[in-house]
Amino acid sequence: MSIRAIARFVPVVAVLAALASPTSSSAQNTALIPTPFQPERHDAFVEEARAGGIDCLLMGDSITDWWRRAGADLYAQLFGPLRCANFGIAGDRTQGVLWRMENGELEGYTPKVMMLMIGTNNLSGRRGPANTPAEIAMGVAAIVTKFRTTFPYAKVLLLGVFPRGAEPDSQYREPIRQINELIANLDDGEYVRFMDIGDAFLAPDGTLPEDVMPDGLHPNERGYQIWADAVMPTFRELMGL
Hints:
Blueprint: H1 3-18, H2 39-50, E1 56-60, H3 62-65, H4 72-78, E2 84-86, H5 94-102, E3 113-117, H6 120-124, H7 133-150, E4 155-159, H8 173-183, E5 192-195, H9 221-239
Helix pairs in contact: 1-7, 5-7, 7-8
């Protein structure tokens, strides 16, 4: 990465770090500490990566992972011809993605684009301490930094965390809004493009319909179609198509 590119990106990370709780430090922010997650699936991804031939990468948690399930037919149609790899793992958090990136999942190929969405599992604390929106934003920034320093000429399509919970006042809606407001600052106008497509999933009254995300978190087939319709023009543009 050029000195100019580093100079443009590093201040954003510093801004996000400054937004962390005054009682926290980077060392205490678990969202920044690379942590092993599902090693068997990771090993399979490393093998896939080292085989090469990957032009685009999808990275994230179950919402990305389940392009293999509810979104399988659409994924084959849209992403298959583009030589994409899906390295999403259900349940993952920012620290798991960081660990996976540091342990082989970025080796053996040179992608043009990564589409990233991660962070919702950091909010719940089901698989470790819950994180604040600022801490999660720092974790996302670290992931983007790792990818960009590994592949200086690749692009990142950074997605805002999708809405969660059926009702507009569900407990996760406001923290997700805060995360997305922070990570929007990572859009540098050149290598990182931020898109918050959350409103596309919502009804006019702000509810999250069951026929889009039946459990209030994971898209169904219709939800993946909404996702694809919202991002594919930009994704293909970033791919140079």
